Amino acid sequence: MKKKALALALAAALCLTLLSACGGKQNTTIKVGASPTPHAEILEKAKEILAKEGVTLEIVSYDDYVLPNNNVEDGQLDANYFQHITYMNNFNANNGTHLVSVAGLHYEPFGIYAGKTASLDALADGAVVAIPNDPTNGGRALLLLQEQGLIKLKDGSGLEPRLDDVAENPKNLDIKELEAKLLTTTLQDVDIAIINGNYAIGAGLKFSEALAVESPDGIAGTAYVNVLAVKEGREKDEAILKLVEALRSDEVRQFIDEKYAGGVVVVD
Known about the structure:
It is built from nine helices and 13 strands. The model is unreliable at 5-24 (pLDDT under 50). The protein has two domains: 29-108 and 223-266, D-Maltodextrin-Binding Protein, domain 2, CATH 3.40.190; 111-214, Periplasmic binding protein-like II (D-Maltodextrin-Binding Protein, domain 2), CATH 3.40.190. Helices cover 37% and strands 23% of the residues. By secondary structure, the chain is α/β, with parallel strands linked by helices. A six-stranded mixed beta sheet has the order 2-1-3-12-4-13, with helices on both faces.
């Protein structure tokens, strides 16, 4: 009995020693929703950094802009990384959700891409222009068309102008609203399309070949900064804050600059 008791005591001591040695970093898993490009790719880079901090990052890819927000709200996700701040605020207002930004990380300049027409100067009267159909990104597209002198919006249209806010349309452009993810697949059927950065990158469209992009001196870097979003109340979660640190690291910044060549712009 004494030998058995001694063996049990030694085993217990060994377990405690192992726990002490390994317990400095308790492994935590967080699940984050993201658009496949560029967000999930950026998260894959951050994942390497988080692993050293005892945080396992599980990345769930989405090809739409609704489910990842609903899944943060209902707790299926710990966070998401796919949307800009104006879209998130609009989504909260329209859906009664409680999403908050824990970090503004980058913006993706909207670009005008050639379909049937090779340049903006060559646009014919009545040319077909495709834009996103959600209010924030559709409004952003109209603002870019105005920036290029193709239309003029009513005064006071704000960040979310609608088609009925177009005051002047000298080329009689036929502006069609389509689901954002369909813009790249229908590009060949329209004269030009104004496409969200993540979908453009995912479709292999080169940012350098866009016919026009948002001015870096405009509002894109603030009104359309892409954020890491969580449900209100989780802003101070330790693993979330570690993810923010990883996404803001020099390694991730370098990865973004090299891989996307101006299609993704880091904000400080």
